[in-house]
Design a protein that fits this description.
2 copies of one chain form a homodimer.
Chain A lengths: L6 E6 L11 H11 L9 E5 H7 L3 E3 L7 H10 L3 H10 E8 L2 E6 L4 E3 L13 E3 L5 H16 L5 E7 L8 E8 L5 E2 L15 E2 L1 H13 L7 E5 L24
Parallel strand pairs in A: 2-8
Antiparallel strand pairs in A: 1-12, 2-12, 3-7, 4-5, 5-6, 8-9, 10-11
Helix pairs in contact in A: 3-4
Chain lengths: 253, 253
């Protein structure tokens, strides 16, 4: 029984690996179908960026990296693989903090995150690193288009990555690519149940959807996607880049 | 039909207002029951801090506030109610940033957030402000105990608030009080599907659960709680204060 207003977060398990050139939509359809499920109008599909990067070939073999002196020093001091540091610096538009073993950068997309999003988990056992997709909003749009082509319905797509944050411990999921829905739910100038006009409430629902999906995706379980059913999203041309605060308005960069 | 591994996020609608001294557990049971639902073992209950603050009497009438000169100047320059600024400063242990109309403080609990969490939405139409609960972890524990007393099962409780964050636009939910579950899912030193040993993955599941609940709670809908069903939480003495990064390890304070 489904309660009114209820949200369902349905994990999509994927057998086997995604390789460069693979069609993610095909793989996901196969997986969804083999779970006895299907995508329905109103669903939102959340996909971890890792399978997108793999399918797009945004994976670098670490053996090909010749780390710079800076990366070697940092790696030695902080016991991290200097090739990863080299890659993270190469992917960065700007270093935001580089201190105490923590490297926070601004990527060329504008995301502020650790190590420019360069990641060796769930790639190939530590010998290769996945980069963020080249243009994650475009990747989401392309996946949305593929889905529409194959099943004739328009399902918003969120591409998620796992980011840390200042002030709070632990990582949470964020949306790095979005297509087909507004990324915010806008309560500004609406009136609450007590008649008070809300001033500053712009809810980052795309990030919250990424978090909800993260709860079922995990990091070990071979579950790189989730279907979110029952969320009243607002259709439209939302983009994850709208979630990036412009540097000039950011007090913590 | 529920898919294996599926998560359900079930909104709990509450008729009427919460007043100082009200039993939240009684009110929530009434609401859950009238929706034809009940709490089950394995459920997590997420409650917005606002109803907790109201029931605990952590609400201040703005007419009683005599704003300081600093608050009056800030209010005038940035077109905000100086009484709210006064209250926010009074609730702060430390001002983290006060610039361009944005006041970020560290509360005495240690949370870093806008205006010390002082909030006039969903209180009484703009004439009163809700503060954060005195000790939100203790509030969560007390609610968990009440629930156990009434229905004999131990349901983890998360008290959520809506916070902004650096680098990204929009607000998301965070856990400000937790009882009955670990706040992190710890992947450190576990091995992914490719045999790679994960290094830094400590997932803040309490915050992600708060976000999932936020998707159904909204700000206008009289839905101050949600039941999350199907999440494999780790029982234990987790506390929201574990989610606060100690100032000395924080590069952005």
């Amino acid at each position: 029984m489904t309660a009114p207003g209820e949200l369902r977060v349905i994990p999509v398990r994927l057998e086997g690996e995604i390789r460069s050139g693979d069609s993610i939509s095909q793989k996901l359809f196969g997986a969804i179908h083999s779970q006895g499920m299907k995508l329905l109008p109103g669903d939102v599909l959340v996909v971890t960026h890792k399978i997108v990067s793999k399918s797009e070939g945004s994976v670098v073999s670490l053996s090909e990296i010749k780390p710079s002196l800076k990366a070697r020093r940092w790696g030695k001091t902080h016991n991290v693989d200097p090739r990863l540091t080299h890659l993270a610096l190469a992917q960065a538009k700007r270093v935001v903090r580089m201190r105490g073993g923590v490297l926070i950068t601004e990527t060329r997309h504008g995301f502020v995150c650790a190590n420019s999003g360069v990641d060796v988990s769930n790639v190939d056992g530590g010998e290769s690193a996945a980069l963020l997709p080249d243009d994650p909003d475009a990747s989401a749009e392309s996946l949305q288009r593929e889905i529409h082509k194959q099943i004739g319905i328009s399902v918003p797509v969120i591409i998620a990555d796992t980011f840390g944050r200042p002030w709070r411990e632990g990582l949470t999921e964020v949306a790095v690519g979005v297509a087909g829905m507004q990324v915010f739910r806008d309560f500004r100038n609406r009136t609450d149940a007590q008649g008070y006009r809300l001033k500053a409430t712009l809810e980052a629902v795309a990030d919250e959807l990424a978090c909800a999906a993260g709860l079922v995706c995990g990091k070990l379980s071979g579950t790189p996607a989730a279907i979110i059913r029952g969320f009243q999203y607002e259709a439209g041309p939302g983009r994850a880049r709208q979630l990036i605060r412009p540097a000039k308005r950011d007090l913590f960069r």
